[in-house]
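Bug #77: duplicate submission created two jobs. Keeping one. Sequence:
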Amino acid sequence: MHKVLIAGISGAIGSGIASELLERDPSAQIIGLCRRPEKVPEAIARSPRVSLLAWDAADPGAAGALVDDLAAVLPAAEGVDDVIFAAGILHGAGLYPEKRVEDLEAGALAQAFQVNAASFSLLMRALMPWLRHRRFKRVVAISAKVGSISDNRFGGWYAYRSSKAALNMLVKTLSVELPRRCKPVACVAVHPGTTRSALSEPFAASLAQLEVHSAGQTATNILAVMDKLNESGNGRFYNWDGTELLW
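Kept job's structure:
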């Protein structure tokens, strides 16, 4: 079996990846993590090849609490082959992309950093026992091009940009450690492109000027990037079309 853990499976991108995997890979066994498993699309939730576990990216203790539940579904000795981190937040209660520095709020910054960055690192800490097998494994964090420090020409969106930049640094740092402990491995960040979803919905007016993908198209693109990964790709930041982005 091809064992894949998707964090954020109830979101547009996470559920899109799960659907694509179930359709194209009969050997795929998916462990899906999300805050509210009842929100996962029915076709995914009812599949005998999917196990759903409660996990809240906004809760710093969620990853530690997850370990026993995950072990009951998949013993650590069996390992996972792919980890896809698709959790993220751009807007919500008390959180909206800032246009100027005066819009910054400490609570919004903390929330963005917890969901978009800290939850990834804490989840990876909890998953280390599942990554020590000798098969090639892939760790893919869904990031964002606006998290590229080199590419920031427009400013604004302070909390989202900086939390995604933090996620990129966590990916890069983890990519240095993992080959020492869990070889063979490729740990990368991927920009999914602009995806039509609840995250992008408030910005529908400006989306008309951009290339926008459906969740299904985004899932196909991300999996195509993953299909081409090998150890030489470890520690890189990829665009949805497979080209490399600047950190």
